[in-house]
Amino acid sequence: ITNNSNSGLLAGRRVMVTAGGTLERIDPVRYLTNDASGKMGIAIAQAARDMGADVTLVAGQVQTMIPDGVNVIRVESALDMLKAVQAHYEKTDIVVKAAAVADYRPKFRAEQKIKKTADSLVLELERNPDILAWLGEHKQHQVLVGFAAETHNVAEFAQGKLKRKNCDLIVANDVSRSDIGFGSDNNEVLIFDGQGLVESVSVRAKQDVAKRILEQAAKLLPEEVL
Ligand code: CTP
Ligand code: CA
């Protein structure tokens, strides 16, 4: 049984996961994106389903199969992802923000394919909204789990993000490591809360890392009112 909503740590709970990279269009055939396979987020969605949760997966660009038994919302840009997440936030118990959101998008999006007339071309970018920060600002009962992709000062930068974005937990990833990098089936993470390190998860399958993250998040859920 993979989706038994009557048993499991997250039975009766609603979990929203964002996964994959966002894609920011320049014109109808060109875009900006960033490295992300979506594997970590999808592993979390699958683990949450197996723990009995009702799962909504907001998926950007993903390079792996989306599991059965989860509600999937496909999005392209960061702005699309923000809208999808906002629409589902209120009725969600746990949000895990594993997506690699593009920090910037092209300021102007050409309706038609840009022709190569000029010798050089300047692409002007503007900041995307910070979806996780929006969730933190509007948090009510939800348990909010962010990710932090860092190449250095991992613990310090991750804890800074946790505080700035009002997360309950932050999962820190060292993206400078080639063995657990983008597209890998394994990961190694540090999980922090507002007080400091909660758990250090040594290198293992993303599926097992996903379970650890959800177990930590489940501890923070308010008691169910029956
Ligand atoms: N995030 C988001 N919206 C954005 C940018 C990031 O929701 N526009 C979320 C990511 O999904 C992740 C967390 O914020 O859960 C941290 O993302 P990261 O890229 O590590 O941090 P940034 O705040 O974007 O800072 P920087 O890239 O400058 O390190
Ligand atoms: Ca970023």
UniProtKB/TrEMBL annotation:
Domain DNA/pantothenate metabolism flavoprotein C-terminal: residue ranges: 10-219
Single annotated GO MF: phosphopantothenate--cysteine ligase activity
Gene Ontology cellular component annotations, sorted alphabetically: phosphopantothenoylcysteine decarboxylase complex
TM ranges: none
GO BP terms in the entry: coenzyme A biosynthetic process; pantothenate catabolic process
Keyword Methyltransferase: no
Binding residues for CTP: D103, K113, P129, D130, I131, L132, F147, K161, K165
Coiled-coil segments: none
Note on cofactor: Binds 1 FMN per subunit.
Record's keyword terms, sorted: Decarboxylase, Flavoprotein, FMN, Ligase, Lyase, Magnesium, Metal-binding, Multifunctional enzyme
Pathway info: Cofactor biosynthesis; coenzyme A biosynthesis; CoA from (R)-pantothenate: step 3/5; Cofactor biosynthesis; coenzyme A biosynthesis; CoA from (R)-pantothenate: step 2/5
Catalytic activities: N-[(R)-4-phosphopantothenoyl]-L-cysteine + H(+) = (R)-4'-phosphopantetheine + CO2; (R)-4'-phosphopantothenate + L-cysteine + CTP = N-[(R)-4-phosphopantothenoyl]-L-cysteine + CMP + diphosphate + H(+)
Superkingdom of the organism of origin: Bacteria
Similarity-based family: In the C-terminal section; belongs to the PPC synthetase family.
Protein name: Coenzyme A biosynthesis bifunctional protein CoaBC
Record organism: Paenibacillus agilis
